[in-house]
Amino acid sequence: ARLADKRSQGNALLTAASMLLVQLSEEVESDTQAEYEKKEPKVGLSTEEVHKRSSDGIEFANRAAKCFEEAGYEEGSQIVTELIQSIYDRAIQIYCKTNEPDQIYYTLAADNPLEDASKCIKEWKIPMPSAGKSEAFAGGDGFLHVFDPHPPPSV
To answer: Is the pTM of this model over 0.85?
Structure first.
């Protein structure tokens, strides 16, 4: 019965994490979009509030993952991972949609030396407050580098 308890505890924590993070994500998107369109933000979130609420949401998600792990419920752990990934991807999309790229690379074809905008690669450098502590970001410069459509070929 203990494993079932862990699993239901994990589900409750996951629901809380999901509600917190999805709502926060929607509010951030609406504020960011309003700012981008030079309108008054509807919610008016402060950076501190965003950090606090996102770390609360992540905390719930981590606790849910731990419960699922203890209950041996792999699908639950997978759902937690997907939730975090989708929130993270959405944040990156919002950023890239409302910020000009930091750099644009043009691919020049040998037979046509003119810049072809359709072949350009855009790069955004997104400041990551926690990137310093984590080795997950290969750049190691405190920025997450996002490329569209893909990173330029290494020189």
So the answer is: no
